Amino acid sequence: MSLAEHEPASGRRVDTRAVAERLLLGALQQQDLARAAAAEADRARHLMKVVQRLAASLDEEETRNAVRHMSLPHPGSWCIVDVVEPDGSLHRLPAVHPHRVQRALALSLERRWSKDAMGAMRSPPDGILVAAERVGRDTLVATIRGEESLRILGTIGFDALLVLPLVVHARVQGAITFVSPPGDVPLSKEMIGLARAIALHCAMALDNATLYREAATLRAAADVANRSKSAFLATMSHELRTPLNAIAGFVDLLDFGVQGPVTGEQHESLQRIKVNQAHLTALIAEILEFARIDRGRVGNAAVDVSMKGTIDSVVKMLAGSAAAKGLTLIATDTTEDAVAWADRDRVRQILVNLVSNAIKYTAPNGGAISMSTRVVGNVVRTSVTDAGCGIAAHQFETIFEPFVQLNTGLADRPDGVGLGLAISRDLARTMNGDLTVESTVGFGSRFLLSLPHAGSRPDAPGDQGRRAPDIQAGGQSSPEPSKSDGVRLYDVERIAILQMMEQTGHNQSAAARLLGISRPTLVRKLKMYRLFPKHG
Fold first, then answer.
1. Residues 6 or more apart in contact with residue 527 via CB below 8 angstroms
2. Which residue has the higher pLDDT, 136 or 179?
3. Residues 155-168: pLDDT tens digits?
4. Alpha helices in 121-263 (DSSP H)
5. Cα-based distances in Å from 180 to 73, 78, 93, 475, 529
6. ∠ CA(46), CA(48), CA(51), 5° rounding?
7. From edge to edge, which strands make up the β-sheet containing 111-113?
8. Which residues contact 380 (CB under 8 A, 6 or more apart)?
9. Strand pairing partners for 176?
10. DSSP-derived 3-state class of residue 340
11. d(Cα 148, Cα 157) in Å, to the nearest integer?
């Protein structure tokens, strides 16, 4: 009997060699699995580092610098990156070699090609793997784009080239070529898969950087357009107000009989001229006020403002106008501790605008218009409630936009140019407050003015150094907004938002980041402009 066979007492023969071989095979398989798992973990860690580096900035130059430092987890691996410039030309970025000796040669690979060279850079979606020893010189020249580049690459030394396109959302950002050093092991299927993943993340990073640059350009253009619009409004309003003042003066002279006796009918006609002149002057003053706010030229003299006293003065001022229309203007539920930290004249201006609108949009003999104030935490909330026609929910933001009026027909169009609410909300926000609306069509509206409580001012007793809270929609205190949240693009904002949504595949978070605004702000603007995204 051989040593490989053994017959136990039971009579069954056991092949110990076969058992040993199976055990050895199992151990080797476990070892292979462990090595594969370790290699997979290494690739995953490498990819994670790549993603972290690419996500560090949205600046285009910094992103390109990160992309040209890409490599595979092989000693001596590096890459060559070609990017498409805004004018359509092709730019090979300065390459970064891991070894200092070859670094200068790698930097000399930088090239620029005209837009006509774009067609030659197209490669299959899965890329092209070119081994130096298996292809002819013509193929290498075409792959590396030129005899001089091939000469430099040959001096540096390479074993294989893996060329992958940088494409995202059907937009070509360029191409990346991973260079394997001389004597390197052939690229495995898993390593090629990692290279494709890196190329995809590079394409996404370059695309995001491009969108960020385009968004910054749009914001700058919009800011210039907005300033030009405001300057135009201010200039034209001044130019119009000058002759109107002259008209008023000459009407008074005629009415006083300076040019001769005035009949009763002539006096009545002159009075109509004066009324219309005063109305037009008020409209121009409103435009001037809007232009000043839009250009940031409105200052606030913040003091303790008693909302009860302010409401009482507004009621006395406008009670006659309300009564003339068969309406009642009343103040209810106003407490003595409702003291806001704000500009007294601006607060009165806002409330006068709100009550005047309530009178304007409430039908004759339509009931009461009420004003009330209450304190909620560090916020003073003042409401103006009417029983008018109401406002549809989808118009809650629209009514606060400049030159917007709900009734657009010629017969029922109200007086004014549609700036009252826009000015009022802007004034509220310059005082760290807000103006919002709640309404039901057919049952009336309630406008809510939220302002910081006087106890939250910086020099309030027992509260040294405390900042007056900013107010969110709904009257709640909010953190200090970012500078970008205050950007109002007006004239080209709709186009900018639409373009950003299309370029980001209707991704609200990405579009908001590139536009420099918060996602809730973007959502409100999407609703306002009716640019509803296909998906979030």
1. 394, 397
2. 179
3. 998 989 999 999 98
4. 137-144, 147-156, 189-255
5. 11, 7, 18, 62, 52
6. 115
7. 111-113, 90-92, 78-84, 171-180, 160-168, 128-131
8. 307, 338, 339, 340, 373, 374, 450, 451, 452, 453
9. 81, 164
10. strand
11. 14
Contacts of 514 (CB under 8 A, 6+ apart): 58, 208, 211, 212, 215, 500, 504
Q: DSSP string of 263-302?
A: -HHHHHHHHHHHHHHHHHHHHHHHHHHHHHHHTT-----E
229 SS3 class: helix
The residues with which 82 forms a beta bridge, in sequence order, are: 92, 175
What kind and span of H or E run contains 8?
A: none
pLDDT at 420: 81
Going by the DSSP 8-state scheme, the letter that residue 419 receives in this structure is -
At 370, which helix (H) or strand (E)?
Answer: strand 367-376
274 vs 282: CA distance, rounded Å: 12
The pLDDT score that the predictor gives to residue 513 is 65
Tell me: the pLDDT tens digits for 387-427?
Answer: 888 888 888 888 888 776 665 433 344 555 677 888 889 88
Scanning the structure block, which residue is given the tokens 């069954």? 12
Q: Is the overall model pTM greater than 0.70, yes or no? A: no
State the sign of the Cα–Cα–Cα–Cα dihedral 230, 236, 239, 244.
Answer: negative
Asked if pLDDT for residue 81 goes beyond 90, the answer is yes
41 is written with which tokens?
A: 């973990």
For β-strands 160-168 and 302-306, DSSP reports them as unpaired
Question: At residue 151, does pLDDT exceed 80?
Answer: yes
User: According to the model, what pLDDT value does residue 339 have?
Assistant: 92
- What is the dihedral sign for C-alpha 209, 215, 219, 225? positive
Task: Report the alpha-carbon distance of residue 203 to residue 474 in Å, rounded.
Answer: 42
Helices 420-430 and 264-294: crossing angle in degrees, nearest 10, is 40
Q: Could you give the CA distance from residue 77 to residue 530 in angstroms, rounded to a whole number? A: 50
**How far, in Å, CA of 105 to CA of 67, rounded?**
19
User: Pick the residue with more confidence: 361 or 504?
Assistant: 361
**More reliable by pLDDT, 298 or 91:** 91
Please tell me what DSSP assigns to residue 330: E
> Nearest to residue 293, comparing CAs of 419, 391, 183, 470?
419
113 three-class SS: strand
Cβ-based neighbour number of residue 497 at 10 Å? 22
CA distance 451 to 341: 7
Q: Is 462 left (phi over 0), alpha (psi -120 to 50) or beta?
A: left
Residue 93 is predicted with a pLDDT of 94
Question: CA-CA distance, 457 to 363, in Å (whole number)?
Answer: 41
pLDDT digits (tens, 9 = 90+) for 17-36: 777 777 778 777 788 788 88
pLDDT at 299 over 90: no
